[in-house]
Amino acid sequence: MSDQPYISFVVVARNDNYGGDFVCRINTFVKNLITLCEKHNLPSELVVVEWNAPEDRPRLTDAIAWPDVQRKSVHVRIVEVPNEVHKNLPNPERMHLFEYIGKNVGVRRAQGEYILTTNPDTLFNEELIRFLSLRKLSRKRFYRIDRHDVAMPIPVDVPVEVQLQYCEEHVIRIYGYFWSCYNQKTNGRYWRLRQARSLVSYLKSRIRSFPSAPLHSNASGDFILMHREQWFSINGFPELETNGKYHRIDGLAVRMARLSGLRQIILKDPLRLYHQDHSRPEPDRPMSKAVKDAYEKLSKAHKLVTFNNTWGLEKENLPEFFL
Questions:
Q1: Phi first, then psi: what are they for 71, rounded to 5°?
Q2: Is pLDDT above 80 for 283?
Q3: Beta-bridge partners for 8
C-alpha cells in the first residue's frame, strides 16, 4: 500500500441503534467498502469517527463484524470523541452526535489525497469504486452524486455482488438533481409529474446561477468528494448552532466549494450510491437562525466565505485506533 491513501472515506457513528438495526447497516457498509476497494486495488482508508460512545453498548471496534479479508489496499482508523469533549459543546443533551463536527474531525485527520465524506449506511456500486480506482479526480473539481434509497432488509450472509444486485432491483426513492421522488416503477404518474416540476426548477436555477450550472445539494451529506486542500480551504463544514438538529449544514459546504472556485461534477449512471433506508426518530425542525443567515450570506457572496476559525476539534488530542 502506498504511503498516502488516494481516498479517505470519512463517516461518523455511535452504537446507539439510530434508525433501527444500525449495527447491521454499518456492517453492510463496511463489508461493501472494504471488499470493493480491495478488489479494485484502491489505496484508501476508512476513517470512522466514533462520537460520544454509549456506555451501555459495545464500542464500534467490537460491534462491527470486520470482513475477514487480507487488506492490502485499505486500512481502517477509528477516532474517538469522548463524552468529556461532547458535553462541552452546545446542546449536548439534545444531540448525542454532532454529525458535521464529527465529519470535520475525520476530514482534519484524514491522510488521503482526496477526502469523501459519507455516512455509515451507504453502499457504493462496483462501477463507482472502479471509477475512483482510476485516479482521474481533479483538485479543481468537487464531486456529487444522486442517492438511491433501498428497501430494507438487504440480504446479509451473501457476497457483495448479490447485495448490490438486490439494491439495483429494490430502489424505492431517489434524491436527485433538484428533485426527490419515489421510484418510477412504484409510481409512474407521480414520477413524471415530479420530473416535469424538476425541469422547471432546474431552468429557473440555471437562469439564477448563469453562467455556472446549478448546485446539486440534495442529500449532499451522503457524498461530497474533493481534494484535501480544498476541504482545508473552506475550513470544513460550518460548525453552527442548529437548535438541536444538524440538517442543512451539508448544503452550505457545497456552496462554499463552488465559491472557492471549484467546478461541480455530478457522477452519473452506471455509477451509483445506495442508501439503506431507515426510520428517522427525530422530527424535522426549521433551520436555525445561524444556518439560515449562513445561506443568505452565501447567496449574496461572489467569493468564498468561511464560518469556522478553528474546526474539527483541532485542539483536542483524540484517541485513535488502527485496525
A1: -95, 110
A2: no
A3: 45, 115
Residue 191 pLDDT: 54
Alpha-carbon distance 222 to 96, whole Å?
20
Contact between 143 and 271 (Cβ < 8 Å): no
Give CA–CA dist 183/149, Å, rounded. 9
Cα distances (Å, whole numbers) of residue 177 to 90, 146, 180, 226 = 33, 7, 8, 19
> What is the enclosing helix (H) or strand (E) of 30?
helix 22-39
Which among 110, 101, 99, 91 is positioned nearest to 16, based on CA atoms?
Answer: 99
Grid cell digits, residue 87: 458535553
CA dihedral 180, 149, 171, 146 (to 10 degrees): 60
Report d(CA 50, CA 184) in Å as an integer: 37
pLDDT at position 178, please? 74
Percent above pLDDT 90 for the chain: 77
CA distance 316 to 183: 44
Which grid cell sits at 115? 477526502
Q: Taking the mean position of all CA atoms in its chain, how far away is CA 34?
A: 17
More confident residue, 29 or 278: 29
Give the integer Cα–Cα distance in Å for 307 and 63.
36
Of residues 263 and 93, more confidence is placed in: 263
23: three-class secondary structure by DSSP: helix
> Which grid cell is 291?
444556518
Q: Give Cβ neighbours of residue 255 (< 8 Å, ≥ 6 apart).
A: 215, 217, 295, 298, 299
Phi, psi of 140 (to 5 degrees): -90, 5
Q: Which three cell numbers stand for residue 168?
A: 439495483
Which phi and psi (to 5°) does residue 165 adopt?
Answer: -65, -40
- For the chain, give every residue range classified as CATH 3.90.550.10: 7-177+215-322
CATH of 7-177+215-322, one of 3.30.365.10, 3.90.460.10, 3.90.550.10, 3.20.20.70: 3.90.550.10
Q: With residue 80 as reference, give the H or E element that holds it.
A: strand 74-81
